[in-house]
Amino acid sequence: MTAEAVSPAVPLRDAWRGLLWFVPLTTLWLLLIYRWPAIPDSGVPTTFHQLAAHGLIALGLWLGLEHTSLTPGQRRATWLAIMITDTLWFAVAWSAAINGSFHPDATSLPTLPLAIFLPVIIGAPLLLLSRRIGQVLDATPASWLVALQLYRVFGSWALAAWLHGALPAVFAVPAGIGDVLTGLFALPAAIAVATSTAGGRRSATLWNILGLADFAVASTMGIITSPGPWQLIVPDVLSVGAGNYPGVLTPAFVVPSSILLHVLSLRQLRRLSRADVERR
After folding, report:
1. Does 270 reside within a domain?
2. Beta carbons within 10 angstroms of residue 10's beta carbon
3. Cα separation of 50 and 44, whole Å?
4. Which domain holds residue 205?
5. Helix, coil or strand: residue 130
6. Structurally, how many domains does the chain consist of?
7. Smallest Cα–Cα separation from 115: which of 270, 250, 277, 244?
8. CA 87, CA 192: separation in Å to the nearest integer?
């Protein structure tokens, strides 16, 4: 069973109707955290939306595995291998952020760049080459991996922090706007790909490219504006690379996990396009 086989066909025009209610909700959230900065400063929104995403990944993975031809033992082993790894990764990143391990003066090691890039360097080849992951992707609706990143609208915390003078504009503005746009367009892209058409898959591919471009810009600006050997711009206020909790959890955990979700989505879309060509 392929992902397209379990994705309901929906009118493409519905892809944009979802923004009619999602944009006001995102604007309301931005106003809320700007009015009460103690909300994002508490770390509760960051922890909540990552735990929610973690739970949805766990559920979606299990449902996808149930549609594969794998044995029950293979399904359990695959689910546990992925979810235990992801849970440990989140726990380590969260604990390190709480304990100040990402501060530039905490260690001589580049801990934050390692937290950003090491999971991607290790995880991306495994996700792209694993035959079992391919089976799961074939059995999972393509819209799931796209819609999951609705949580990217929470990146608006960077814009609120900039407005309060807590982050430099050179980092916060492109990173915040890029995250919000990626989160907003996740909904129409997910609905578009659910149409099971080539145009829908192209829309989802472009959305993935937008999300990855956002991370490329945000990571670059974060590195060159943060204290360390790669700092090229010294802003008036400390950037996210200063390692302060909870903001540091965004590059330390949210960024690499989201990049890997983009990698999975692109692999799934490529497999769907190839399967569509083979059916013709």
Report:
1. yes
2. 17
3. 10
4. 16-279
5. coil
6. 1
7. 250
8. 31
Paired tokens of 261: 């979700």
Domain presence at residue 4 = no
Q: How far apart are CA 247 and CA 210, in angstroms?
A: 22
DSSP code string of 221-273: HHHHTSSSTT-----SS--GGG--TTTTHIIIIIHHHHHHHHHHHHHHHHHHH
Q: Give whole-number Cα distances, 108 to 85, 219, 247, in Å.
A: 26, 20, 21
- Both structure tokens of 235: 């802003």
Give the model's pLDDT for residue 136: 92
Work out the angle between the directed axes of helices 72-98 and 131-139 (0-180°, nearest 10): 100
Identify the CA nearest to 63 among candidates 137, 140, 4. Answer: 140
Instruction: Decide if 10 is inside a domain.
Output: no
Q: Is the peptide bond before 168 cis (omega within 30 degrees of 0)?
A: no
Residue 2 lies in a domain: no
Evaluate whether 137 touches 273 at the Cβ level (below 8 Å): no
Query: Is the pLDDT assigned to residue 240 strictly greater than 50?
Result: yes
pTM to 2 decimal places:
0.90
Tens of pLDDT, residue by residue over 81-130, are: 999 999 999 999 999 999 989 988 888 788 888 999 999 999 999 999 99
Q: How far apart are CA 42 and CA 206, in angstroms?
A: 34
Rounded CA-CA distance 90/144 in Å is 21
Q: Across the chain, what does the average pLDDT equal?
A: 88
CB 72 within 8 A of CB 223: no
Conformation bin of residue 140: beta by default, left when phi > 0, alpha when psi is -120 to 50: beta
